[in-house]
Amino acid sequence: MTTDKLMSTTEFCHDRVSVFNVGDEFCSETEIQAVSTDQPQTRFRDAVRVVADQGEYWLFDYGVVVFWGMDEEEIKRLVAKFVKQSESNLEKIEEHYLFGFANEIKISKDFITLPDNNPLSRLAVSHALAQSIKLVEFEQNAQNTIVNHSHLPETLAKSGKIALSRKHIAKIRGMLFRTKSDIILHYGLLDTPEFFWEYPEYEHIYNALAKYMDIHPRVELLSKKLETIHELFEMLADEQKHQHSSFLEWIIIILIAIEIVIYFVELAA
Question: What's the pTM?
Fold first, then answer.
């Protein structure tokens, strides 16, 4: 679909942008289409634009929805439908901004000034907002892991032992690795979205928002935090392995001692 056809008569209920991250419990595209069968939809690689009666919203494949100028009650209704029914009580991450129009892209104090009323300009902004709020999810998970296990280094330093099973440590290491692979490989938070390969003229809009949201510095900081946590659990895993090896060695020593005792008892008999 051409840009001229996309531009047309989008009317906004107000000047608010609402961003929701519903995470892994996002419905599939088929289920979402069933919710919005009477509304025009257009896909742009990993994003789908849906035109509402007033305003529009962009659905991203990684569980984020960006609403532009839509009624608050309608937003709540749609978000509830986009979450799988079995997880309807899931706590969602949300952020809100204001927007207006001028001659160039600007953002200050959470007010986004768009250079035009072109939907693709809003998509460029939406990409940055979606990446940023997805990053919030990872940041929260990493912070929770840090808080929940912040006592481990001190406990290890004092007692030389950690009361965690090998299975528990392995699960945490797997979770940390999955988070890092999601950031770098799955969700591409380090990369410019593929949309800009076809529409490079909108990339400067995305870059302006990405800079304002500190996306790349936040990803780097989060990666360092994950590496530090991973090093801690790698050390704990090595300690567990060493303890297990020592335990097996003692079993072997005891078995050999028992065999020697039995041997001499038999000789004495």
Answer: 0.76
Q: Which residues have CB under 8 Å from 112's CB, separation 6+?
A: 17, 97, 98, 99, 100, 105, 106, 125, 209
Handedness of CA 147, 152, 158, 162 (dihedral sign): positive
Q: What are phi and psi of 106, to 5 degrees?
A: -145, 150
DSSP symbol at 26 = B
- The rounded distance, in Å, linking the Cα atoms of 193 and 131 is 10
pLDDT at 202: 94
Residue 183: which of 234, 136, 117 has the closest Cα? 136
Residue 30, token pair as written in the block: 């088929």
Closest by CA position to 130, among listed 197, 64, 201, 51: 64
Neighbour count for residue 34 (Cβ, 10 Å): 11
164-168, 170-174, 228-232, 252-256: which is most confident = 252-256
